[in-house]
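quick one: flavin mononucleotide bound model?
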Amino acid sequence: MGNIAIFFGPEGGSVHRVARSLAAKMESQAPDLILINEATASDLARYDHIIFGISTIGRDTWDQKFGNIDWARFMPIVSSFDFTGKKVAVFGLGDHITYAYHFVNSMGILARVIVKNGGQLLGKVSPENYDFQDSEALEAGLFLGLPVDEDFEPELTDGRLNGWVEQLNREF
Ligand SMILES: Cc1cc2nc3c(=O)[nH]c(=O)nc-3n(C[C@H](O)[C@H](O)[C@H](O)COP(=O)(O)O)c2cc1C
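yep, here:
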């Protein structure tokens, strides 16, 4: 495995906590943990393996009125970045109770941008151990990354991350 980074945002909430936990579980690969606030395209270019962490804050996720200005700034950089030759995985924070019909939608939106821009998307996960109604993050019967719900099932996060790290170790 080549060099690896976890690009995440926003700062200080569930995404941040899960990003830190993931980095600790991947300690042997020594991933760089990079807050997207000030990240640039040349930061993305430095890594062969990229993991993104994002939350879904309604359908206006990147609208500044919801305060998710980190992704509002970084998403255009991702959208115009050429991911050819890069292995990429995404984890997405969401709430499967309150937003059962829009569960981790942003993870799906981000994952599709990566594929469209030539990235090899890995770390897809079966929805069978999740309870929800609908999600834009589903494709061909799989989640396009790892959903995590720290609001209503935080007790499952650790096991989910452990399973995903094992999967990434095989796929990356
Ligand atoms: C205004 C608002 C809208 C949300 N919309 C969704 C949604 O559409 N789908 C979903 O799965 N979670 C939704 N959530 C839940 C968040 O994704 C979840 O609380 C997440 O852990 C937040 O992580 P963060 O604090 O790192 O941003 C929403 C939360 C808020 C506050």
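Residues 10, 13-15, 55-58, 66, 93-95, 99, 102-105, 150-151 surround flavin mononucleotide (CB under 6 Å).
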